[in-house]
Design a protein that fits this description.
The protein is built from one helix and no strands. It is mostly helical.
C-alpha cells in the first residue's frame, strides 16, 4: 500500500518536472521569436527612416533649385 502511494507520488513528481520543463522550453522559444520579430521590425523602421530622409532631401533640393527638373518630367506626380 505505501509502496504504491510512493510510486504514484513519484510518477506525479516526474510528470510535474516534465511539465515544468515543457513550459520553460516554450517560454524560451516564445522569447526568441519575440526577439527576432523585434529585430526585424527595428530593421524595417530604420529602412523607413532612411527612405523618408532621402525623400525630404530630394524635396528640399527641388525647393531650392526648381529649375533643375524639366517641366515635362514623366516621373512627376503632380
Amino acid at each position: 500500500m505505501i509502496a504504491t502511494i510512493l510510486k504514484l507520488l513519484g510518477g506525479l513528481a516526474r510528470l510535474a518536472v516534465s511539465l515544468i520543463g515543457l513550459f520553460e522550453r516554450r517560454r524560451l522559444i516564445d522569447g526568441a521569436r519575440a526577439r527576432v520579430n523585434l529585430e526585424n521590425l527595428q530593421g524595417q523602421i530604420n529602412a523607413c527612416k532612411i527612405a523618408l530622409a532621402a525623400r525630404e532631401a530630394v524635396r528640399a533640393d527641388v525647393a531650392r533649385h526648381p529649375d533643375r527638373l524639366p517641366v515635362d518630367d514623366p516621373f512627376r506626380r503632380d
